[in-house]
Design brief:
467 residues, OB fold (Dihydrolipoamide Acetyltransferase, E2P), disordered N terminus, 3 domains, single chain, 8-stranded mixed beta sheet
Length: 467
């Protein structure tokens, strides 16, 4: 576990450069331009979420999403829609060529839409990944759900909900007053001129046509300097790491347990450090975790080590507080919090982090129970147990068997632990230092112990107070 500190420091430095760069680029009152190009995917969600948090955290005046996409995954579009609807600063979409399929749904989640002279928006029918139509029942269920989502998103941002629904549902008619804008039977797609047509003094969908971001800024009356944010190249990495969060937590917990359980071992500690480092790194890159969660986790480790090294069998306060801080930091790292939200997360924000943590802890308890039962019987464990360093003084380690049997280490013989027994280590019986092992519990140095079983070179002990 001691190897975690330099790795955590590396994580902080690695992410700090990216975060600091974003903070230095964006100033209060700036207009942040965020490209939304290519396929709508989970990695795009990671980037947009990070960009929105950076813009809001720096006090930007507005965010403009420059869009050119033919669509992509509906589940990612739903998540992006949720992110945009959380925004506390004005949001704009500049459709620079295409806002097809899932792109049109994302555009409806922004408060203002501007379109390039030659551009289009719409045609958001759900299809299979192969491009084929969904089966009838699944299609009806999907359209029903998404129609409700689109309507609520459109209403929230001041758009005509019928227009948004007609992008996906060919059975939706768009009618304003007595005029039928779009009849039933086909999916709605609008070009720039159609989308900006004013009917009863209000545009059908888009606020205007703009030749460029600079032109949009002028027509929308935005005063701040234009600042661009681009993908960092690590969003895909963050996607994979956050998806594997339960497995990384499981690996970190099991590795830490084995590091303390097997004296002299270092590989389990290295694996544990790597798992926890990847966990925090992924959530750091995804814009979920900050420096504070890493610091909280390290503080928890320090308190647990203080408990083990200095207060074993005297108090549990340090250990309990340390474990609590470690669990809290792991949970905190997975919570998706936005600037301006309350410190205490809501139930919806906690649902997935709690599930991931529950899965990891449950699996770890099961694996640890199996390891605790079978590990002491393995040759690997005994080999590591014999590799622990001998403290100064006469030792029975490695001496001929007849000298060991000459020492009366019968059940009930009292001695003192010289090293931490975790569960093996060194103990003194009279003038002799002996390799001993417990039945799994940790015993601190200078603790009175008693022999409960001997089997050749194997001496099993427990604390004298337990006799």
């Amino acid at each position: 576990m001691r190897k975690l500190l330099p790795i955590f420091a590396l994580i902080c430095c690695f992410r700090a450069a990216e975060t600091t760069q974003a903070r230095e680029v964006i100033h209060k009152g700036d207009v942040v331009v965020v490209p939304l190009r290519g396929e709508v995917s989970p990695s795009l969600l990671m980037f947009l979420r990070r960009a929105e948090k950076a813009a809001e955290g720096s006090g930007a005046a507005a965010i403009i999403f420059e869009m050119d996409t033919y669509g992509g995954r509906l589940d990612s579009a739903a998540e992006i829609t949720s992110v945009l609807n959380r925004a506390t600063i004005p949001t704009y979409t500049f459709i620079n060529s295409n806002a097809g399929s899932a792109g049109s749904l994302i555009a409806l989640a922004t408060q203002r839409i501007y379109m390039a002279p030659v551009s289009a928006i719409g045609a958001a029918a759900p299809v299979l990944p192969t491009g084929e139509d969904l089966p009838a029942t699944e299609r009806d269920k999907t359209i029903s759900y998404w129609s409700a989502l689109i309507r609520s998103s459109a209403l929230r941002n001041g758009h005509n909900p019928d227009v948004g629904e007609a992008f996906m549902n060919k059975d939706r008619e768009v009618k304003i007053g007595e005029r039928v804008i779009h009849p039933k039977g086909t999916l709605l797609t609008l070009n720039a001129q159609e989308a900006t047509e004013r009917i009863n003094g209000k545009p059908l969908l888009a606020d205007g046509i703009a030749d460029s971001i600079a032109d949009l800024r002028q027509k929308a009356g935005l005063k701040g300097n234009i600042v661009s944010l681009n993908p960092s190249g690590f969003e895909q990495l963050a996607l994979w790491i956050t998806a594997l969060a339960p497995l990384l937590l499981l690996g970190g917990i099991i590795g830490a347990y084995l590091e303390f359980k097997i004296p002299g071992a270092s590989l389990p500690g290295i694996i544990s450090a790597i798992c926890f480092a990847l966990f925090f790194l992924g959530h750091y890159l995804a814009g979920l975790a900050g420096w504070e969660v890493v610091g909280l986790f390290v503080l928890g480790i320090v308190l647990v080590l203080i408990e083990i090294l200095f207060f074993a069998h005297t108090t549990i306060v340090f250990g309990v507080v340390g474990v609590f801080l470690m669990l809290a930091s792991l949970l905190w790292a997975m919570i998706d919090r936005y600037p301006g939200e309350t410190f205490f997360p809501t139930g919806r924000m906690l649902a997935m982090p709690l599930l991931n943590l529950f899965i990891a802890i449950t699996a770890a308890v099961i694996v640890i129970a199996i390891i605790a039962r079978f590990l002491p019987r393995t040759g690997l464990y005994r080999r590591f147990a014999l590799m622990t360093s001998n403290p100064p003084g006469p030792s029975l380690s490695g001496v001929p068997r007849e000298f060991v049997t000459a020492l009366p280490l019968t059940p009930g013989t009292l001695g003192t632990a010289l090293t931490i027994l975790r569960p093996s280590g060194k103990a003194r019986f009279g003038d002799h230092v002996v390799d001993v092992i417990t039945k799994g519990e940790f015993i601190g140095p200078q603790t009175p112990i008693a022999v409960i079983q001997t089997d050749g070179m194997r001496v099993v002990v427990k604390t004298a107070a337990e006799r």
